[in-house]
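Journal club side-thread
Mid-discussion, someone asked how the predicted structure for our own chain would compare to the paper's figures. Pasting it here so we can look after the session.
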Amino acid sequence: MDTLDKTTEQTGSVIALACNVDDMTGEEMGFALERLLEGGALDAWLTPIVMKKSRLGTKIEVLCKAEHRAAVVALLFKHTTTLGVRECEMKRYELIRREDVVSSEIGTARVKESAGYGITRRKIEFDDAAQIAREQGISLAEARKRLEK
């Protein structure tokens, strides 16, 4: 992570998109989140809210890069029942990120590395560690421990 450690600041911008729905099932919202993440969203999440007339609803929020805005808005309309999408451009402070690969006696896994602002982090990719844990018949914690050696 030597080159990552020297970076002290990185900024970028993201588009925050949001909409409210009150007539979708949890399964439908989960399906919509999957499509959004596959279609250009950097992140997407659901928040329970109370809407007008005291109706329970859900706020769907999505972060994306400006170049994916149109595609993500189209996906929100396609996969949700919303009638409108709100947009806000935001400045974002970011750690520099890269991916590496580690090999051990139990398998190979991707490692996420990030640094900047005096911080350095390294984390085994969950999906890879989980697959190795299943294949080896060990706990997830044990798989991570053995991969980090």
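Post-session note: The longest strand covers residues 11-21.
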